[in-house]
């Protein structure tokens, strides 16, 4: 067994076929794992991207992962089969950067709200980035910035391609572990390359035939930032994080709905068809952004009513 004095703490940047890239000091080591961590089907006992691990350094290029340190957060997706099974996508994420585009592909606030629910549920700070403002009319998306800012969310209107509006976003990334989420084609890879030009990230344009993004990332990977912290790209995973969310829980993760719900006539109000609903009244009076409420109903009806076994 390795002496504890020879162990160093590192962060897992990528997992590929039982090979683990681990950031250690100013280098990245190619690591294997020690016996007790191999051949496990337990999601909580297997090494994931973002894990902080204890590494025994064999050389300047290789090491062995001895232990997974306690996780402070995780993001998961589900594997749909006879039962819904959790699959951890990444661990120890400080914040989620939700990336949408004004055009190519078309802006969808429903996707933003879905990811905001995921962030709230997992106690991860969300940031909203609306990319490709060079393709939009002036001030076209100011309404969304205003409405989401009212809820306490930080919103950035940027053009990653032309490096517009990136400085304030870059400041939010400093010394944090940030995971980018969003559909393929919204510009996640271009955004990473723009805030950290030394990185060479593969990018592809949106398909002209389908107007949908083309996948450029096949697995989650973290990249060290020269100004401190890590940033990670993800495949376009729609089911990310909603694997165990139930209808009855959704209202807890909409901050404005949770705020007005205390004044509803019924304590168990779902804010859909119930009489005396303070949330629906707030929508009618313009105190809740109507588009957000519409997205709430769409997400609500897409969720399960019973727990997964």
Label this structure with key terms.
single chain; 309 residues; alpha/beta; OB fold (Dihydrolipoamide Acetyltransferase, E2P); Rossmann fold; 8 helices; globular
Summarize the structure.
The chain is of the alpha/beta class and 309 residues long. The protein is built from 8 helices and 13 strands.
Give an overview of the whole structure.
This protein is of the alpha/beta class and 309 residues long. The chain folds into three domains: 4-68, Beta Barrel (OB fold (Dihydrolipoamide Acetyltransferase, E2P)); 89-233, 3-Layer(aba) Sandwich (Rossmann fold); 247-302, Ribonucleotide Reductase Protein R1, domain 1. The chain has eight helices and 13 strands. It has helices at residues 109-121, 142-150, 166-173, 188-195, 247-250, 255-260, 278-284, 290-302, and strands at 7-16, 19-24, 27-33, 52-57, 62-68, 74-80, 84-91, 95-101, 125-131, 154-157, 176-181, 221-224, 229-233. The strands form three sheets. It has a six-stranded mixed sheet with strand order 10-9-8-11-13-12, sandwiched between helices. Strands 1-2-3-5-4 form a five-stranded mixed barrel. Helix 1 (109-121) crosses helix 8.
């Amino acid at each position: 067994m390795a002496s504890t004095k020879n162990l160093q703490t590192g962060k897992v940047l990528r997992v590929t076929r039982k090979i683990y890239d681990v950031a250690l000091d100013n280098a990245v080591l190619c690591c294997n794992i020690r016996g007790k961590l191999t051949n496990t089907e337990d999601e909580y006992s297997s090494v994931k991207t973002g894990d902080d691990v204890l590494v025994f350094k064999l050389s300047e290029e290789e090491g062995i992962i001895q232990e997974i340190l306690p996780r402070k957060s995780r993001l998961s997706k589900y594997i749909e089969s006879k039962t819904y099974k959790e699959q951890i996508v990444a661990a120890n994420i400080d914040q989620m950067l939700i990336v949408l585009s004004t055009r190519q592909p078309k802006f969808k606030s429903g996707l933003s709200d879905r990811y905001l629910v995921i962030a709230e549920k997992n106690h991860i700070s969300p940031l909203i980035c609306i990319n490709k403002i060079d393709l939009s009319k002036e001030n076209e998306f100011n309404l969304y910035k205003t409405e989401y800012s009212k809820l306490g969310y930080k919103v950035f209107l940027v053009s990653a391609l032309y490096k517009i509006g990136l400085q304030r976003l870059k400041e939010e990334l400093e010394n944090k572990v940030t995971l980018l989420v969003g559909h393929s084609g919204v510009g996640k890879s271009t955004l990473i390359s723009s805030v950290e030009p030394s990185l060479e990230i593969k990018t592809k344009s949106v398909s002209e035939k389908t107007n949908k993004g083309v996948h450029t990332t096949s697995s989650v990977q973290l990249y060290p930032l020269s100004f401190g912290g890590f940033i990670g790209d993800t495949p376009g995973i729609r089911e990310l994080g909603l694997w165990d969310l139930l209808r009855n829980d959704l209202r807890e993760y909409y901050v404005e709905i949770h705020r007005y719900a205390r004044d509803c006539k019924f304590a168990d109000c779902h804010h859909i068809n119930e009489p005396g609903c303070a949330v629906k009244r707030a929508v009618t009076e313009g105190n809740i952004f109507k588009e957000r409420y519409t997205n709430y109903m769409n997400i609500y009806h897409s969720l399960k009513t019973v727990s997964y076994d």
